[in-house]
Design brief:
A hairpin with a 2-residue loop joins strand 2 and strand 3. Strands 1-2-3-4 form a four-stranded antiparallel β-sheet, with no helix packed on it. The protein is built from three helices and four strands. It has three domains: 35 residues, no CATH class; 37 residues, Single Sheet (N-terminal domain of TfIIb); 33 residues. The structure holds zinc ion. Zinc ion binds next to loops.
């Protein structure tokens, strides 16, 4: 159970053992994003909550406006995709470096 908490699952635990780990990890990232308070583009306070898909409401200045379905702006999801894309080639590079070292030693 403790390892599950570290893995970034949390709200997704409600699904139990179903649907697969990778899918649930992706889903939890989006759900954390949609549930947290966002920064208001009108008054700059972090008090914007998601009312429904794409509809956001600021508790501070009462502004109701449209945005992305799970986030006010598109930025964060793009950043995550870029990070995961960078991680994979790095892992391959490390493996080849290890293989080269092994060759040099032999
Ligand atoms: Zn506001």
């Amino acid at each position: 159970m403790k390892t599950e908490e570290k893995s970034g699952l949390g709200s997704v635990k409600r699904f139990g053992a179903r649907y697969g780990r990778k899918l649930k990890l992706k889903f939890s990232k989006i759900e954390i994003e949609q549930r947290k308070l966002h920064k208001c583009p009108y008054c700059n306070k972090t008090a914007v909550k998601r009312m429904a898909v794409g509809i956001w409401n600021c508790k501070k200045c009462n502004a109701k406006f449209t945005g992305k379905a799970y986030s006010i702006s598109k930025k964060i999801i793009i950043k995550e995709i870029a990070e995961t894309a960078q991680e994979e080639p790095l892992a391959i590079k490390e493996e080849t470096e290890e293989a080269n070292q092994a060759l040099e030693e032999a």
